[in-house]
Amino acid sequence: MAAAAAALASSPIVHLTASRLRLPRPTLASASASERTRSGSFSSSSSSSGTPGISNEPPFLSFSVDNIDTVKLLELLGPEKVDSADVKAIKEKLFGYTTFWLTREEPFGDLGEGVLFIGNLRGKREEIFAKLQRQLRELTGDKYNLFMVEEPNSEGEDPRGGPRVSFGLLRREVSEPGPTTLWQYVISLLLFLLTVFSCVELGIASKISSLPPEIVTYFTDPNATGPPPDMQLLLPFVESALPVAYGVLAVQLFHEVGHFLAAFPKKVKLSIPFFIPNFTLGTFGAITQFKSILPDKKTMFDISLAGPLAGAALSFSMFFVGLLLSSNPAGASDLVEVPSKLFQGSLLLGLVSRATLGYSAMHAATVAIHPLVIAGWCGLTTTAFNMLPVGCLDGGRALQGAFGKDALFGFGLTTYSLLGLGVLGGPLSLPWGLYVLICQRTPEKPCLNDVSDVGTWRRAALIVSVFLVVLTLIPLWDELAEDLGVGLVTSF
């Protein structure tokens, strides 16, 4: 037993662990009481029937917590860092007078697990970056990812135009997103089923005025007697509510297809969508993660904007066609009575409804509309919420790609303030703001080429989109609604 304990105490595994954590090295204890109580040692005792100095109990390790180096512990538990030998080879073989003149190094990454090379660029940034990426693959294989980012705290711009750049180095397994797990598939399926249920509930709520009178009387009259009405009467009612549910689901599925169609030619992998149910709009949209590193900001912008554009196109088509069908007397049997005050929930959509249906139809207590109007309205509102420039929403990703993280921080702070004050989204501002804070507040990680410009027309498209988003989410106040003839304003 003593020989085994001595071998364990001198093993390289114990030595390595103790040296990385700066722990006291374990030693074999003697039979004396003073040595048995010493911290950081093996304990052994004499057995009454056994050989003196030989313990019947197994040896154990005891370390003092005060001797643990927390920095070393975090390094041990944190992501694996870049090898110093590889850093030395990269500096010697990649950087130089014709590519990038290195002046200093800094930690790079969320926990400083990478290296940021700071210096002076010696050519066109895209050409130098492509050359460095190629040479890095030849030198280290697929071990690392190289990022071109803006130099932190730089003074002035690059003499060739644009921001000064630096190059960040991270291990591939640290910088790339992990694969979709089985639990994520299960959660995605459960969320989708809940979203289907919430969409059906939205359709039923929109058709509640056409509920069979026998059922309404039975459940609302406290003096009702006799057996409950035949539940078969509910089937036609539920079937009439399904078009709204189909429309809302179609918009969201179209939204996700837009993301995937934009990502496929650029060879960017996306996660399965995690749909978010909501009983007011049917759904709050979906969370779709990037499962591969984005090559540049243009790719981030195009993929982020493709989904909202597809969803908005289908939503507005449904909304406008529904308004046209609402003004057709031949389809009166398919219309749904809704309070006219609902049209005051959106400045843009309220004005479009007023222009299509006319003053007399809108200036009443209730308005008869086609179910497509409800589906289109909910789809446009959900799309507008997801285009807000904050966090890793579609709008936040697009803004980060077009204007950078600093601009995203400023716009995000403004967006949170407007949501908190109820200026955007009306009664939905609070639940939406909480959802973003919990699930979508973190900006997207940098692209491999996080410097190159997205172009003027992409910025212009984003500005127009954000302007339309604001018009969609700003509600009409009573005075303006009365002047524009949107809904019937009641004075008390």
UniProtKB/TrEMBL annotation:
Note the Pfam families from the entry: Peptidase_M50
Q: Which UniProt keywords apply?
A: Chloroplast, Hydrolase, Membrane, Metalloprotease, Plastid, Protease, Transit peptide, Transmembrane, Transmembrane helix
State the compartments where it is located: Plastid, Chloroplast membrane
What PANTHER family does this protein map onto? ZINC METALLOPROTEASE EGY1 (PTHR31412), ZINC METALLOPROTEASE EGY1, CHLOROPLASTIC-RELATED (PTHR31412:SF0)
Q: Which organism is it from?
A: Leersia perrieri
Q: Where is the composition biased (Low complexity)?
A: 39-51
Q: Does the keyword Transmembrane apply?
A: yes
Q: What family is reported?
A: Belongs to the peptidase M50B family.
Hydrolase as a keyword of this entry, yes or no, is yes
Membrane topology summary: Multi-pass membrane protein
What is known about what this protein does?
Probable membrane-associated metalloprotease that may be involved in chloroplast development.
Domain named Peptidase M50: which ranges?
245-404
State what protein this is by name. Peptidase M50 domain-containing protein
Q: Where is this region: Disordered?
A: 28-55
Listed transmembrane segments? 182-204, 233-254, 274-294, 306-325, 369-388, 408-438, 459-477
A GO molecular function term, named singly, is:
metallopeptidase activity
